[in-house]
Amino acid sequence: MPGRPDYRPAGATITLTAGSTAFTTTGAALQMAAVNTGDTIWVNGLFLIIGTITGQNAGTLADPCPAGAAGTHPLVIRYQPDGSRLSAFVQDLTTKLASGNVDAFAGLTLAADTLPYGTGAGQMGLTALTAAARALLNLQGTAAVNKLPFLDTSGSAALADLTPFARTLLDDANAAAMLGTLGAMPQTRTIPNGNYNQAIESGLYTGAGAGAANAPPGSVLPYGPLLVQRSTFAITQIVTFAYAAGGAAVEMAMRGSNDSGATWSPWRMLVETAGTNGNGRYVRFQDGSQLCRHTITMTPASLVAAGAIFRDVTSMPWWTFPAAFAEAPSVRIAPRSTIYWAGAGQISATATTETVIYCYTNFSASITVDLFAFGRWQ
Questions:
Q1: Domain range spanning residue 44?
Q2: What is residue 172's DSSP assignment?
Q3: Quick check: is 134 in a domain?
Q4: Helices within 259-347 (DSSP H only)
Q5: I want to staple 316 with a disulfide (CB 3.0 to 4.6 A). Which of 61, 86, 214, 355 is the partner?
Q6: Contact 257/344 with Cβ under 8 angstroms?
Q7: Model confidence over 196-249: pLDDT tens digits?
Q8: Based on the domain organization, do 257 and 306 belong to the same domain?
Q9: Contact (CB, 8 A) for 176 and 186
Q10: In a domain, 124, yes or no
Q11: In angstroms, rounded to a whole number, what is the distance separating the alpha carbons of residues 346 and 327?
């Protein structure tokens, strides 16, 4: 087969630089003329082998340009004979096939929803190609900085923004770390060592319950959630507890510290609270005062003469207050009768353990008695 004639486009030139592999041409249309690797450029009696063609008027040499070929010259290109080109191709293909990759691929038994992959040099295996994986391969959009793939349908994927700040959350190991990154409060904390004085970091704490140290006053408040708000050295603690049917009764107390919890103000009730139990009803006021009331029915059955009157020290039951006082309160016992009167002694912060019924005659009848106690709960 006769070789192709040399390529000599009229007026075309080539510019070469000594020691460089890059060259440029003018008016050459190298790609349209099918100039390829292995073809040669003839300049000043020298043949320079072409390494690559990078454009219609640009390419590189297989070796750096010698000084004798440097400069701008008329363009003359000699095509490599087709037989030589085919031989080179076959030799290159044979070298590549010798790697074992084709044999490894041919040895696979393909099945539905599988994908070949390399397991080593000249070795291949199969892995599952699930519908989700195929959806990701169908990713739409343009890859760019701060983008994240996501499935937008059952069979396709798209790109969403993934900001640098979002990545600071994604590298957190747990919810507590994420909340720290956000500067937010954890959902709930535990009061350290059951001591309210140690709950000094901002957050919502579960109540420590009965017996907690430095707890808010009242029988139920230590069970309520504790809200702590802190700003540098200033700390505010607020405890709220709703109880009775439908939360009809609410207690709320507050205190503060201005030295990071070293010292605290007294607890202060924020709302008037009231409650009822088997010992009567109580009301606690914001100013620290407390009123307790109870009504009983009894019969003076052991009246004993005491001078011109009679007294009974055994029939009247002792009264345990429905809510404790901070100190012994004032107690009044008022029979609903015109012939009986009463008094109380042995008064403590929690009860009166001595009650006496008086009557000006030795007369025993069922009577209703109102009991009152007034004092301070804090």
A1: 13-85
A2: -
A3: no
A4: none
A5: 355
A6: no
A7: 999 999 888 988 888 899 988 766 778 888 899 988 889 999 888 766 544 456
A8: no
A9: yes
A10: no
A11: 13
